[in-house]
Amino acid sequence: MMMSFFDQFASPSFLGIPLIAIAIALPWILFPTPTSRWLNNRLITIQTWFINRFTNQLLLPLNVGGHKWALLFTSLMVFLITINMLGLLPYTFTPTTQLSLNMGFAVPLWLATVIIGMRNQPTVALGHLLPEGTPIPLIPVLIIIETISLFIRPLALGVRLTANLTAGHLLIQLIATAVFVLLPMMPTVAILTATVLFLLTLLEVAVAMIQAYVFVLLLSLYLQENV
After folding, report:
1. Between 20 and 30 A from 200 (CA), which of 25, 134, 178, 194?
2. At 37, is the secondary structure helix, strand, or coil?
3. Into how many domains does the chain fold?
4. CA-to-CA distance for 211 and 170, rounded, in angstroms?
5. Which helix (H) or strand (E) segment is 13 a member of?
6. At 1, is the pLDDT very low, low, confident or very high (cuts 50, 70, 90)?
7. DSSP code at position 16
8. Is residue 12 part of a domain?
């Protein structure tokens, strides 16, 4: 029974063909294409307003050199939010519950920020490994600690997103199973449990958006250190 709870995180396949590529590519079809007209419909207007506000908020602490990443960060943010939200629908698969996919996003983008820092300002980039005013006996230890923390960053990015979404989906499935089991025996308790399930679903909607925002925000902070 416990294994069936984790079946929802298995990559779907049809006739032996993995369908994760379709699950990743399909969300882009849902977005309306902006037109060249002055007046758009309400959906495109809201979409444009949201993207503009997010881009301004995200790139506010960055200098002009970091603004080149605006399109990449905004696209990644919208993509993650869409996948996370669609994964809350019944009988759907959430690709971002796969650690391999999240690490595929985290590692190249983190590595790109590090390479940019080492190329443009190597002294400043290496200076982050040793805080100013460190006592001489602690210098080797702090360099090792800061180096380890630097290489843990992409792992933390991927694991954070995977763990939060996986835990939320498991909680929803466990409580939903409890509602169906309790409904014939204790209807009152089942109704209270269903109320908890509804509130948890609302919380998961917020988590789906917040985790996507945190993922991109941390990448922008890593970029801020290196531009």
Report:
1. 25
2. coil
3. 1
4. 17
5. strand 13-14
6. very low
7. T
8. yes
pLDDT 10s digits, 133-142? 778 887 888 8
CA 175 to chain centre: 24
- Given the structure tokens 């650690």, which residue do they identify? 99
Higher local confidence (pLDDT), 124 or 195: 195
Amino acid at 12: P
Structural domain that includes position 171: 7-226
- What letter does residue 29 receive in the DSSP assignment? G
In degrees rounded to 5, what are phi and psi of residue 14?
A: -135, 120
Tokens of 225: 């250190």
Average pLDDT of the chain is 83
C-beta of residue 93 within 8 angstroms of C-beta of residue 12: yes
Phi and psi torsions of 12, nearest 5°: -70, 150
Query: What kind and span of H or E run contains 45?
Result: helix 42-59
Do residues 67 and 127 touch, judged by C-beta distance below 8 A? no
Tell me the torsion sign for CA atoms 35, 41, 44, 46.
positive
SS3 17: strand
In 3D, which of 212, 175, 188, 226 has the Cα closest to residue 58? Answer: 212
**Is residue 1 situated within a structural domain?**
no
Using CA atoms, how far apart are residues 178 and 158, in angstroms rounded to an integer?
A: 30
In a domain, 2, yes or no: no
Predicted TM-score (pTM) of this structure: 0.83
If you ran DSSP here, which 8-state letter would residue 36 be given? S
- Residue 133's region, left for phi above 0, alpha for psi from -120 to 50, else beta, is left
